[in-house]
Design a protein that fits this description.
- The protein is mostly helical.
- The chain has one domain: Hemerythrin-like (Four Helix Bundle (Hemerythrin (Met), subunit A), Up-down Bundle).
- The protein is built from 4 helices and no strands.
- α1 packs antiparallel against α2 and α2 packs antiparallel against α3.
- Bound molecules: fe (ii) ion (2 copies).
- One fe (ii) ion binds next to α2, α3 and α4.
- The site of one fe (ii) ion has 7 residues, from α2, α3 and α4.
Length: 129
């Protein structure tokens, strides 16, 4: 089972970016599979931490390119990255301290973030290059 499905609407229209986004989603889904084979607290926390790390790595790469290109909407774009990472952190904290892991919430957060951010900020940025 997948946590998020790749959707055509995630496409930015730039093949290289789409490949990377699709890979990120694939990676999240495979992390999800291994978490599901051992749903201990440690395994779930590890899973959330890995999602955070992989997403942060993708964002860092984009931000590096934006700085190099002196991209005009860098601040705005970086803010969205930080908000998404904060949302993942909140889900981690909630689980760590209250023992509640709302899988559907995670699903919704990732799906809506990815679809909005990929379609808007990422598409805009890659068109500007
Ligand atoms: Fe991206
Ligand atoms: Fe981005």
């Amino acid at each position: 089972m997948s946590l998020i499905e790749w959707k055509k609407e995630f496409e930015t229209g730039i093949p290289d970016v789409d490949v990377e986004h699709e890979a990120l989603i694939g990676l999240i889904n495979s992390l999800y599979d291994s978490m599901n084979s051992d749903r201990s607290k440690d395994s779930i926390l590890q899973f959330l931490g890995d999602i955070h790390t992989k997403t942060a790595a993708h964002f860092a790469l984009e931000e590096k390119i934006m700085r190099e290109e002196e991209y005009a909407h860098y601040g705005e774009h970086k803010n969205e990255h930080e908000q998404l990472l904060d949302d993942i952190n909140d889900i981690m904290d909630e689980y760590e301290f209250n023992d509640s892991f709302d899988e559907n919430k995670l699903k919704q957060v990732l799906a809506s973030w990815f679809s909005e951010h990929f379609k808007n900020q990422d598409a805009l940025f890659h068109k500007a290059l």
